[in-house]
Amino acid sequence: MPEAEKGRFKHLIEGLKSPDREEKLLSIAALGIIGAPQHADLLADLLSSPDEEVVEQVMVAMGRIGNPSSVKYLIEFITSENQRLVNSAFSVLGEINLNPALPVAIKAAGADQPPEIRRRIIDILANYEDVRVSSLMNEILGQTRDHGLLVAAIRYFVRCPSAERHTVLKMLATNSNWEVALAANLALSRLKDEGAFSQIRRLAKSGNSDIRQLIVEALNEYPLIEDRNIFQMFFEDNRSSVREAALRGIDLFGADERITIIRNWLNRETDKKIKKLLISRAAKEHTTLFYDEFYRNLQTSDEDLKKLAIEAIAEMGEKIADRIIIDFDRMPLVVREQMILVLGKIGGEKVVKIVEESLQAKERWLRINAVEAAASIHDDSLYLKLIELLKKRDTDVWVRATAVSALGRSRKHDYAEIVASQLNHEDARVRANAIEALADLAWLGLPDACQKMMHDRNDRVRVNAAIALWKSGNEEVFAELERMSRDKSRWVRSSAVFALGQIKDREGAHILLNLLSDPEEIVYKNAVEALAEIGDMRALIPLLKESRKNRLPAEIFAAALKKFSHSINRES
Fold first, then answer.
1. Rg of the chain's alpha carbons, rounded to an integer?
2. For 201-230, what is each residue's pLDDT tens digit?
3. Span 483-572: which CATH code?
4. What pLDDT, on a 0 to 100 scale, did the predictor assign at position 199?
5. What is the pLDDT of residues 338-367, one digit of tens each?
6. For residues 397 and 496, what is the distance between their CA atoms, to the nearest angstrom?
7. Distances (CA, A) of 247 to 230, 315, 533
8. Domain map of the chain by residue range?
9. What is the spatial distance between Cα 271 and Cα 231, in angstroms, rounded to a whole number?
10. Which residues, 6 or more positions from 222, have their beta carbon under 8 angstroms from its beta carbon?
11. 389 exposed, middle or buried (CB, 10 Å; 0-12, 13-18, 19+)?
12. What's the mean pLDDT when you consider all of the chain?
């Protein structure tokens, strides 16, 4: 290991030998989060520990690191009397790329192993298309009577068809065990065996939804053009998980067929998850034929579905703009509010005109979204309209605040003074957006304004001023954020955390570390996530300690530690 690397992680490497159990466990977990391949061998020595938790954490760390050199150590645990360690070993083996270590894994799947152990190894090896794996699977087909092991080996030849296995698969297709027979027929169907195809077509109509699920998942592993009729049945299956899996088969159909299938499917689908997948898939067709289906979803209460529909219509571009503009005035208000955003993403001379008209609308959200549309188009005439809005005293504060942000995103220095005129506005949203926008407009008066706004009565204004001040190169901002982090109000403390998370400067890590003892969950959670974003090594052990306290759900810490790992790797 390079000396520089040793020095950087010295305290963690030394922690592996610590007599303090907690320090040892934290060092193991930390090296796993860091994910440096060279650390895998350092961890291997601890697999001989009598402490079960130490051994298990070493395995988890090895899985995160993913060094194939760990395979030979993990294999030793698959026959352990400790079932917990057996499960951990198999779980980690499934995470590591076994290609460089296939001989070791294949040897571990030998006939001398108990059938259950062999099956679990085979399930992992089945993901590797390799002549050595194929040879092992063929050996199992001819030597074992264990049904679970047979099914696992046969499924390999579903994903990797082999004409040389036709005879043995034919024999297995009549096996008295239905799972073995089904797997064999699926494998034969990939070899275009007509008898097997007929059997699969018949079973695809089974009243047993588990059988249909097995079939659709198997067909997805190696889809053939001949499978289209089966997939069409599954597109309309009454089990949502079957329909979801079947969607992968849509590419077997020609463009016109795909469009017809997806349109009909969208109109009858009730599962929101599948509907979202369908809209995303339909958008890839880049055709205006889906317009009506997307349009209907602009009125849904599901924000994710609505967002997907907006993006999908926008992807149609100028081809759909004329139709939208012609129908715009007749659309329900809730649709116009979304459609103006679509038009903003499309742009063009005709769109500029309708955005201008919408900026004068009576309805607040139509005007707000028209401002957002103007910001997307980047047209000078629209920017001038936004400036006019700012000059009017009676402009709605929400519209005003949005217009200020839009002018900031223009990056046009000429607009700085009009935006600066909003710094003294009575509404905090306007002031907060103004100071944020001025940072993007490189306003010369920014440092002085930030110093003043750092003492604003509103915490969001103070936070945006802090971020803007930092962007201008002033690191004195951290002293103010530290003061805010000690404020009596949890919202002020939370805002300070938000600012530090946005700044992502390691200078602020110590402030966030102090907030890990904050009693308020919102402050604590934001501090954890901000530290993960920054990726400062000083925060790794404290974050791991916090993860063991269970103050937050395990998935939140898992996501934070994963983000921390990415931050460390970006730096490397």
1. 30
2. 999 999 999 999 999 999 999 999 999 999
3. 1.25.10.10
4. 95
5. 999 999 999 999 999 999 999 999 999 999
6. 25
7. 12, 21, 35
8. 483-572
9. 18
10. 158, 159, 160, 161, 190
11. buried
12. 92
